[in-house]
């Protein structure tokens, strides 16, 4: 059976499974739609949370980032995993004990203000749409290569599938669909990693393979071999970092703190029966996430070794099949700058922007239609960082069923997070804006209909953002974490741990943090991308790390405003105590 047919079968079977689960567990009430009825087992919730969390950025883009950034890419690993520990210890159990449906619910009630709730909804929508742009882009990339359609059409197909199980099933459908998606994505990530680790080092465990010797007779270890091959091609050593210490710190901190402020992750802890289960499910989620995250550095190193070995100095006429496959979708490209017919990979960009092709096969049919070739450096190969994990099994010549499995896994990762984000957006609009703010007398049935309409509109906007993304997948997702760190995290943190924080302080802080961070990212990524260099950044902090500065501004403004405005009512102090103090503690202390 051909690889293409296997891909169709694997993808079709996995989609049938997801949609079947969504229909079987269709939400019949707002409680089921928003928090799956609040009775999900902690282990099941941990698995669903891991799937919700391990998006296209984790599955598709993170190892590709590390493959091309080397040491500098480790900030994503450290930030995204460290944030989970912070979330489990600092926020999850307290928010579950509070017992509401959403993050704006918590902020609106804790800060006794409809305006605070509305500002939280605006923050949430900014974060979620930025995040979902990366997911839909990931879906488009997977479909474009494996179903042989354009990226734009791939995004549209992904929109249609998410529509079915997110709009029908709500949180109840999404929870059980995400359990299935976790199983698919982790299997799809680990199997090729085992194969490739065995091929390169003779050790089937990728985490150990990364520190093993390459079995090519060179007597070199994997990272030594990678350093030497990259330096021979004009790159810095893989194990050397080029980022400044302050930028590494800020990106890691923004990702870590942003994790603890991400609404689609936090809402998962509202689905378990009690506060202790929230902590347990966060622990289980960390275990399930660690399986992929400890494997990613090895996958990245092996992918870069294989890429260097099969592309650099290879005649284009003899280019491997995988190169031609990805070239059809403009995700990899070659331009012969020195007319020697060979593909030469070195430091620098081959093109300004990404290439577009006329769509033939071979050198004559693959000429550039409209692009600026950069002649000030010798690099002749353009490669989209987001393809490395997906292309890895093809580069390593693995069996067709492994390639098909990776296609299904990539889609599972992107679609699971997209669904969770869409639910958060629809809930914010139907529950927090409509029911709790503008139309409190709306019926349960009317609210459920509004949630489904909001989800449908959100899918359309998400699709547009996926077709015209502001960067590659992991980078776009990093922006969402920065926005979460700068806007929602301080309000949630102070809402739990400070009795003196009032509505005026929280609102001023959220508006300041969100505005500063969004404008900084937009300036360097959308309005003036040519200025996106370390020399122009504030204190040398990149747009990916600026959320930390936004967070500090949020805290400073919130505390300053709270000092000069009216203190919160006495019942808010009691509410904070009720969230933080375990049941029965007061009676025990009295005795």
Give me a quick take on this structure.
This protein is an all-alpha fold. Helices cover 69% and strands 2% of the residues. The chain has 2 domains: 3-303 and 398-580, Up-down Bundle (Sodium/glucose cotransporter), CATH 1.20.1730.10; 332-383, no CATH class.
Low-confidence stretches: 357-367, 584-591
Indicate the CATH class of the largest domain.
Mainly Alpha
State the CATH topology of the largest domain. Answer: Sodium/glucose cotransporter
Shape: globular
Kindly provide the radius of gyration, computed on alpha-carbon positions and rounded to a whole number of angstroms: 24 Å
Mean pLDDT: 80
**Domain count:** 2
Kindly report the spatial arrangement of strands forming the biggest sheet. 1-3
Number of strands: 6
Q: What amount of the residues lies in strands?
A: under 5%
Kindly report the oligomeric state of this protein.
single chain
Q: How far is it from the N-terminal to the C-terminal residue, by CA?
A: 74 Å
* Proportion of residues in helical segments: 55-70%
CATH H-level name of the largest domain... which superfamily?
A: Sodium/glucose cotransporter
* Number of separate helices: 24
Query: How is the biggest beta sheet arranged?
Result: 2 strands, antiparallel
The succession of helices and strands, N to C, reads: HHHHHHHHHHHHHHEHEEEHEEHHHHHHHH
